[in-house]
Amino acid sequence: MYRKIVIKIGTGVISRKDGKLDSRVLKLLVDQCAQLRKSGIQTVIVTSGAVGTGRGLITIEDGATSVIKKQVYAAVGQVKLMSMYAKYFAKHGIFCAQILATKEDFRDKEHYQNMKNCMENLMRDNVVPIVNENDAVAVAELMFTDNDELAGLIATQLNVDAVIILTSVDGVIAGKPTDRNARVISEIPFADISSFEKYVMPDKSEFSRGGMLTKFKVAKELAEKGITTHIANGLTSGILSDILAGKSVGTKFLPKDK
Ligand code: GLU
Question: 0.70 cut: is pTM over it?
Fold first, then answer.
Protein backbone atom coordinates (compact mmCIF):
# COMPACT_ATOMS: atom_id res chain seq x y z
CA MET A 1 0.00 0.00 0.00
CA TYR A 2 2.80 2.45 0.96
CA ARG A 3 6.51 2.26 0.22
CA LYS A 4 7.79 5.03 2.44
CA ILE A 5 6.15 6.31 5.61
CA VAL A 6 6.66 8.55 8.63
CA ILE A 7 5.32 7.26 11.94
CA LYS A 8 4.84 9.89 14.61
CA ILE A 9 4.67 8.59 18.16
CA GLY A 10 3.19 11.01 20.68
CA THR A 11 4.16 11.46 24.31
CA GLY A 12 0.69 10.35 25.43
CA VAL A 13 1.18 6.99 23.71
CA ILE A 14 4.48 6.01 25.30
CA SER A 15 3.93 7.58 28.73
CA ARG A 16 2.26 6.01 31.69
CA LYS A 17 -0.30 7.95 33.71
CA ASP A 18 2.45 9.26 36.03
CA GLY A 19 4.31 10.65 32.99
CA LYS A 20 7.09 8.04 33.04
CA LEU A 21 8.11 6.15 29.90
CA ASP A 22 5.92 3.12 29.19
CA SER A 23 8.52 0.71 27.87
CA ARG A 24 5.93 -2.03 27.25
CA VAL A 25 4.02 0.14 24.75
CA LEU A 26 7.25 1.34 23.19
CA LYS A 27 8.37 -2.25 22.64
CA LEU A 28 5.07 -3.21 21.02
CA LEU A 29 5.35 -0.28 18.63
CA VAL A 30 8.96 -1.05 17.79
CA ASP A 31 7.98 -4.70 17.11
CA GLN A 32 5.40 -3.47 14.59
CA CYS A 33 7.82 -0.98 13.00
CA ALA A 34 10.37 -3.78 12.66
CA GLN A 35 7.81 -5.92 10.82
CA LEU A 36 7.04 -3.05 8.43
CA ARG A 37 10.73 -2.51 7.84
CA LYS A 38 11.17 -6.22 7.17
CA SER A 39 8.33 -6.19 4.67
CA GLY A 40 10.29 -3.58 2.72
CA ILE A 41 8.51 -0.40 3.83
CA GLN A 42 10.96 2.44 4.42
CA THR A 43 10.13 3.85 7.83
CA VAL A 44 11.11 7.02 9.66
CA ILE A 45 9.94 7.50 13.24
CA VAL A 46 9.31 10.92 14.73
CA THR A 47 9.16 10.39 18.45
CA SER A 48 8.19 12.58 21.37
CA GLY A 49 8.67 11.60 24.96
CA ALA A 50 12.15 12.92 25.79
CA VAL A 51 10.88 15.60 28.16
CA GLY A 52 8.43 13.22 29.82
CA THR A 53 11.10 10.53 30.20
CA GLY A 54 13.56 13.03 31.71
CA ARG A 55 10.92 14.25 34.12
CA GLY A 56 10.48 10.70 35.34
CA LEU A 57 14.23 10.29 35.85
CA ILE A 58 15.50 13.40 37.62
CA THR A 59 14.32 16.20 39.86
CA ILE A 60 15.35 19.73 39.03
CA GLU A 61 16.03 22.22 41.81
CA ASP A 62 13.32 24.82 42.32
CA GLY A 63 13.99 28.14 40.67
CA ALA A 64 14.83 26.88 37.17
CA THR A 65 12.79 28.50 34.39
CA SER A 66 10.41 26.34 32.39
CA VAL A 67 12.74 26.57 29.38
CA ILE A 68 15.71 25.33 31.43
CA LYS A 69 13.60 22.55 32.90
CA LYS A 70 12.51 21.45 29.45
CA GLN A 71 16.09 21.52 28.16
CA VAL A 72 17.43 19.51 31.07
CA TYR A 73 14.61 16.96 31.07
CA ALA A 74 14.93 16.52 27.31
CA ALA A 75 18.71 16.17 27.37
CA VAL A 76 18.50 13.46 30.03
CA GLY A 77 15.33 11.82 28.71
CA GLN A 78 16.45 11.63 25.08
CA VAL A 79 19.30 9.27 26.01
CA LYS A 80 16.99 6.91 27.85
CA LEU A 81 14.35 7.12 25.12
CA MET A 82 16.82 6.27 22.36
CA SER A 83 18.43 3.52 24.40
CA MET A 84 15.02 1.84 24.64
CA TYR A 85 14.39 2.18 20.90
CA ALA A 86 17.85 0.80 20.15
CA LYS A 87 17.38 -2.12 22.53
CA TYR A 88 14.00 -3.14 21.09
CA PHE A 89 15.06 -2.73 17.45
CA ALA A 90 18.19 -4.78 18.16
CA LYS A 91 15.97 -7.73 19.10
CA HIS A 92 14.95 -7.74 15.42
CA GLY A 93 18.52 -7.27 14.19
CA ILE A 94 17.70 -3.71 13.12
CA PHE A 95 19.73 -0.59 13.83
CA CYS A 96 18.10 2.75 14.50
CA ALA A 97 19.69 6.18 14.35
CA GLN A 98 19.07 9.44 16.17
CA ILE A 99 18.38 12.70 14.30
CA LEU A 100 17.72 15.80 16.38
CA ALA A 101 16.37 18.82 14.52
CA THR A 102 15.44 22.43 15.17
CA LYS A 103 13.41 24.79 13.00
CA GLU A 104 16.68 26.32 11.86
CA ASP A 105 17.57 23.05 10.09
CA PHE A 106 14.55 23.49 7.83
CA ARG A 107 15.36 27.14 7.07
CA ASP A 108 18.98 26.54 6.15
CA LYS A 109 19.24 25.01 2.67
CA GLU A 110 22.47 23.19 3.43
CA HIS A 111 21.24 21.74 6.74
CA TYR A 112 18.02 20.69 5.03
CA GLN A 113 19.86 18.86 2.27
CA ASN A 114 22.34 17.25 4.68
CA MET A 115 19.54 15.97 6.85
CA LYS A 116 17.64 14.62 3.86
CA ASN A 117 20.74 12.87 2.48
CA CYS A 118 21.51 11.37 5.85
CA MET A 119 18.02 9.96 6.34
CA GLU A 120 17.80 8.62 2.80
CA ASN A 121 21.11 6.85 3.22
CA LEU A 122 20.16 5.44 6.60
CA MET A 123 16.97 4.01 5.09
CA ARG A 124 18.86 2.59 2.14
CA ASP A 125 21.09 0.76 4.62
CA ASN A 126 18.05 -0.61 6.47
CA VAL A 127 18.56 1.66 9.47
CA VAL A 128 15.47 3.31 10.96
CA PRO A 129 15.98 7.06 11.48
CA ILE A 130 14.35 8.29 14.69
CA VAL A 131 13.78 12.02 14.77
CA ASN A 132 12.95 14.33 17.64
CA GLU A 133 13.21 18.02 18.19
CA ASN A 134 16.55 19.06 19.64
CA ASP A 135 14.86 20.36 22.76
CA ALA A 136 18.16 20.97 24.53
CA VAL A 137 18.92 23.89 22.19
CA ALA A 138 15.44 24.78 20.95
CA VAL A 139 14.37 27.87 22.84
CA ALA A 140 11.15 29.63 21.83
CA GLU A 141 12.08 30.97 18.40
CA LEU A 142 13.75 27.76 17.26
CA MET A 143 10.94 25.53 18.43
CA PHE A 144 8.44 23.67 16.33
CA THR A 145 4.92 24.09 17.60
CA ASP A 146 5.13 20.37 18.31
CA ASN A 147 6.33 17.09 16.84
CA ASP A 148 3.27 16.81 14.58
CA GLU A 149 4.60 19.81 12.69
CA LEU A 150 8.06 18.24 12.66
CA ALA A 151 6.60 14.99 11.27
CA GLY A 152 4.88 16.99 8.53
CA LEU A 153 8.13 18.68 7.55
CA ILE A 154 10.05 15.40 7.47
CA ALA A 155 7.29 13.81 5.38
CA THR A 156 7.56 16.59 2.81
CA GLN A 157 11.35 16.53 2.88
CA LEU A 158 11.45 12.78 2.16
CA ASN A 159 8.40 12.80 -0.09
CA VAL A 160 6.80 9.87 1.71
CA ASP A 161 3.51 8.23 0.76
CA ALA A 162 1.92 8.56 4.17
CA VAL A 163 2.25 9.84 7.72
CA ILE A 164 0.79 7.85 10.58
CA ILE A 165 0.23 10.01 13.65
CA LEU A 166 -0.15 7.78 16.68
CA THR A 167 -1.89 9.45 19.56
CA SER A 168 -3.91 8.49 22.64
CA VAL A 169 -7.34 8.93 21.01
CA ASP A 170 -8.95 6.91 18.21
CA GLY A 171 -8.89 9.65 15.57
CA VAL A 172 -11.03 12.64 14.68
CA ILE A 173 -14.30 12.11 16.50
CA ALA A 174 -17.68 13.32 15.26
CA GLY A 175 -18.81 14.75 18.59
CA LYS A 176 -17.40 15.13 22.08
CA PRO A 177 -14.64 12.61 22.99
CA THR A 178 -16.47 12.06 26.30
CA ASP A 179 -19.60 10.98 24.43
CA ARG A 180 -19.48 7.18 24.31
CA ASN A 181 -21.63 7.08 21.20
CA ALA A 182 -19.56 9.54 19.22
CA ARG A 183 -17.98 7.76 16.31
CA VAL A 184 -14.57 8.14 14.75
CA ILE A 185 -14.60 9.68 11.29
CA SER A 186 -12.92 7.03 9.19
CA GLU A 187 -12.21 8.99 6.03
CA ILE A 188 -11.89 12.67 5.20
CA PRO A 189 -11.90 13.34 1.45
CA PHE A 190 -9.56 16.05 0.22
CA ALA A 191 -12.30 18.25 -1.21
CA ASP A 192 -14.21 18.35 2.10
CA ILE A 193 -11.38 18.66 4.62
CA SER A 194 -12.40 22.12 5.82
CA SER A 195 -15.94 21.00 6.59
CA PHE A 196 -14.58 18.50 9.15
CA GLU A 197 -12.65 21.11 11.08
CA LYS A 198 -15.64 21.71 13.35
CA TYR A 199 -15.09 18.29 14.95
CA VAL A 200 -11.62 19.14 16.15
CA MET A 201 -11.44 19.74 19.89
CA PRO A 202 -8.80 22.18 21.13
CA ASP A 203 -7.94 20.02 24.20
CA LYS A 204 -4.47 18.63 24.77
CA SER A 205 -3.25 15.85 26.97
CA GLU A 206 -1.28 16.73 30.09
CA PHE A 207 2.26 15.91 28.98
CA SER A 208 2.29 16.65 25.27
CA ARG A 209 2.52 19.89 23.35
CA GLY A 210 0.31 19.36 20.31
CA GLY A 211 -3.36 18.56 20.16
CA MET A 212 -5.87 17.47 17.52
CA LEU A 213 -5.86 21.01 16.14
CA THR A 214 -2.23 20.84 14.95
CA LYS A 215 -2.66 17.25 13.79
CA PHE A 216 -5.58 18.34 11.64
CA LYS A 217 -3.64 21.31 10.29
CA VAL A 218 -0.66 19.12 9.41
CA ALA A 219 -2.91 16.50 7.75
CA LYS A 220 -4.55 19.22 5.67
CA GLU A 221 -1.22 20.62 4.51
CA LEU A 222 0.07 17.15 3.67
CA ALA A 223 -3.11 16.34 1.73
CA GLU A 224 -2.39 19.40 -0.46
CA LYS A 225 1.00 17.87 -1.21
CA GLY A 226 -0.42 14.49 -2.15
CA ILE A 227 0.54 12.77 1.13
CA THR A 228 -2.00 10.65 3.04
CA THR A 229 -2.27 11.09 6.82
CA HIS A 230 -3.69 8.62 9.32
CA ILE A 231 -4.49 9.69 12.88
CA ALA A 232 -4.91 6.63 15.06
CA ASN A 233 -4.65 5.30 18.58
CA GLY A 234 -1.13 4.07 19.27
CA LEU A 235 -2.40 2.05 22.22
CA THR A 236 -4.60 -0.16 20.06
CA SER A 237 -2.84 -3.47 19.51
CA GLY A 238 -1.63 -4.13 15.98
CA ILE A 239 -2.57 -0.61 14.89
CA LEU A 240 0.28 -0.16 12.42
CA SER A 241 -0.23 -3.50 10.71
CA ASP A 242 -3.96 -2.79 10.49
CA ILE A 243 -3.41 0.58 8.85
CA LEU A 244 -0.89 -0.88 6.42
CA ALA A 245 -3.29 -3.71 5.61
CA GLY A 246 -5.83 -1.09 4.57
CA LYS A 247 -8.24 -1.75 7.45
CA SER A 248 -10.51 1.07 8.46
CA VAL A 249 -8.98 2.18 11.76
CA GLY A 250 -8.51 5.75 12.95
CA THR A 251 -9.06 8.69 10.61
CA LYS A 252 -7.59 8.70 7.13
CA PHE A 253 -7.11 12.00 5.31
CA LEU A 254 -7.27 11.35 1.60
CA PRO A 255 -4.85 13.55 -0.34
CA LYS A 256 -5.10 15.49 -3.55
CA ASP A 257 -3.63 13.48 -6.43
CA LYS A 258 0.14 13.80 -6.49
N1 GLU B 1 10.16 17.04 21.68
C2 GLU B 1 9.31 16.82 22.82
C3 GLU B 1 9.77 15.60 23.62
O4 GLU B 1 10.48 14.78 23.12
C5 GLU B 1 7.87 16.59 22.45
C6 GLU B 1 7.18 17.66 21.69
C7 GLU B 1 5.71 17.28 21.41
O8 GLU B 1 5.06 16.71 22.29
O9 GLU B 1 5.25 17.53 20.31
O10 GLU B 1 9.38 15.45 24.74
Answer: yes
